[in-house]
Design goal:
single chain; 196 residues; mainly alpha; Arc Repressor Mutant, subunit A; 2 domains; 9 helices; 81% helix; rod-shaped
Length: 196
Amino acid sequence: MRATSVMTHAMASSAVEPMTASSRAVSADAAVEQLYAAHWRALVRLSVLLVRDTGTAEEVVQDAFVAMHGRWHKLREPDKALAYLRQAVVNRSRSVLRHRQVVDRHARVEQERAEVTTPGADKAVLDRARRDTVLDALAALPRRQREVLALRYYLDLSEAQIADTLGISRGAVKSHASRGAEAMRRNLGELLEDPS
């Protein structure tokens, strides 16, 4: 049965009797039921092509039928109900796709955030090994270079404060810091290049 004949039948049955609220409901029920029987599968196939999921497509079509039934009395041209349903299915399918994109985007952001903030199981062991390697390299330096680097980078003292603490000139502090930093770079080359 074509959609126009469905509407004509539903309208013809209501033309015999005066239109009351209950007769409009009956005609809406009958018309939507006939449209459902005749076009449900085709509308689901249309939605499947758009959303690529049969379960979601069935929900989209079902929601379109429910919405049309609820607004049946507002349809100006009931014989165009099938066109209304098609458009509703397309629009609801688009909404599903937009929702999926938003969900996927947030899931990716959360996954990236988790990858960045979640340490691996071996992080503590690796951190300990790195710390030991740095301390070994620092211990291998001459005493003055080791002292200058410890005061500069551990206590964050200025050149003047280091000079006062060690009783040496600011020039000597610069020289020891420069030589010590270069030796550390040499000794820790691989460790400094590895970002993990």
